[in-house]
TrEMBL record:
Residues 4-229 form the ABC transporter domain. It is a peripheral membrane protein. InterPro entries: AAA+_ATPase, ABC_transporter-like_ATP-bd, ABC_transporter-like_CS, ABC_transporter_ATP-binding, P-loop_NTPase. Keywords: Antibiotic resistance, ATP-binding, Nucleotide-binding, Transport. This is ABC-2 type transport system ATP-binding protein. It holds the Pfam family ABC_tran. GO terms for molecular function: ATP binding. The keyword Lyase does not apply. It comes from Amycolatopsis thermophila. PROSITE patterns: ABC_TRANSPORTER_1, ABC_TRANSPORTER_2. It is found in: Cell membrane.
Amino acid sequence: MGIIEVAHLSKRYGEKVAVADVSFTVERGEIFGILGPNGAGKTTTVECLEGLRRPDGGTIRVLGLDPRRDTAELRRRLGVQLQETQLPDRLRVGEALELYASFYDAPADPGELLDELGLTGVRGTAYRKLSGGQKQRVSIALALIGRPEVAVLDELTTGLDPQARRDTWDVIEGIRDRGVTILLVTHFMAEAERLCDRIAVIDAGRVAAIDTPGGLVARVTDEQTVRFRPSRPVGDDLFTALPEVRRVQRNGGRIVITGTGELVQAVTSVLARNQVVAGELRVEQAGLDEAFVALTGRTIERGV
Ligand SMILES: Nc1ncnc2c1ncn2[C@@H]1O[C@H](COP(=O)(O)OP(=O)(O)OP(=O)(O)O)[C@@H](O)[C@H]1O
């Protein structure tokens, strides 16, 4: 059984269909991403599984619990980071953690958590004086203070600069390594690519695809391109004879070979057999960006 199971979820606001039909299962220990453009229905989906909204249709189980019925138990076992944590301005970081810790029977140690998130130095600082990245890490700390088995992180790095965003990614990987299952909502491509074991691509309230980042790319194309400058002149026929090769092009002194499968290995072995050295060798592969466009017909931000 998955740690989170969502089946045929639907939710509308008046006439507006926010979630039309969303199903996915999150396994214990993974970082599962929900990736989609603004307005795709990501937040509505996670708010339903947090028990904050009542779905119009479908079923949801989180840790085997029904979010609408077992709200109190779910609150103890699910860590939730809100889109914008609003804490009183004067509250100090350490006090905020102590306060939230008091809501749980067996909370994490606030000092250890601050240390892990690199916040020890601002323990006595008022929340309003923190940088965007520090505020974000406080909101992650608050999501983890109850030692949850599952944490839902929504738009984790929105508004952060690239360095703060990368630092936050390291933090998230550390949390996963401690065994916390993470449901990560994002509209940044780079974030999903870097962090997620599997991704549900959501568009207009529906799941367009669920797969590993590599699997999503492979669904769309397994074409790759190898570029290099040969150490001596070679004919195209050397490469066109390889089953992996689709096209050979020339670009100045460079050879550009497009193909599939074990293309890089095939090209480099034929070069080695013919004593040609490949200078300035580059390999390019379609990425999640291309896969996302092919699946949804839209582009979204990369995020770094
Ligand atoms: N309370 C509400 N009342 C009416 N419409 C809403 C409400 N909340 C969301 N919507 C609409 O439902 C759709 C889905 O919104 P939702 O916030 O779930 O998307 P999202 O993928 O999380 O987007 P974002 O990345 O912008 O947060 C959007 O068209 C949004 O305008």
